[in-house]
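Q: I'm writing a short explainer about Class I SAM-dependent methyltransferase for a general audience and would like to include a description of its predicted shape. Could you first generate the structure from this sequence?
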Amino acid sequence: MGLKLEKVVPWGRSMTEYIRMFHLKGCDLNLKIIDCAGGPASFNAQMNSQGYQVVSCDPIYQFSGSEIAKRIQQTYSLIMNGIENNQHNYLWIEIESPAKLGEIRMGAMHQFLEDFPLGLEEKRYLTDGLPVLPFQANQFDLALCSHFLFTYSDHFSAEFHIEAIAEMCRVAKEARIFPLLNVSGEPSPLLHRVLSELQHQGYVVEIKQVPYEFQRGGNLLLRVCQAKGNS
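A: Of course. Here's the predicted structure. Afterward I'll give you a sentence or two in plain language.
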């Protein structure tokens, strides 16, 4: 058994990590992207500063920057203590220690907090959450979901996952979900059922290896698209 969480917590990653987690190529960065359950990641802030288009959705954005910052501080000790006690579940190669991990994560989340007020004004941060998004069909090219679906398999049902992924595929031409492990580092027990049902509904699903692995075995991405003629 590894890290356990009693609820979804705010924990953000950087643009560099997003590029590797989601196997984003140069041409992908030019797409219209929606980041579902984006939380306090710096992906939106960094992408926007470089002229790319990203909209992030997460119910946490209903809170003020100071309230989110307080929740991040509360989460920090919880996460870091859990990782310290389960270091064998992670690969300490590019990130060489828990202390370095904390530094990287807090750096990304501080970038988010600095960008959050302007991003709210520019409607780059929206308070909507899966499985219902307020967008038209195919309004985006690519929908991403990092460390929410499958990560919180103990908290959300297979039905929730299926509805959420179908919604991502409604608003975007392609959906990518990473990782396929739960928060404790085990393969999600929901994965097989979710894949089978999505295929039954006519979606094209693909599991791809990506050039990113921090959780041991956590280097697989789920790619889902509408089958031609079904969109």
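A: For your explainer, you could say: DSSP finds seven helices and seven strands in the chain.
Q: Perfect, that's easy to follow.
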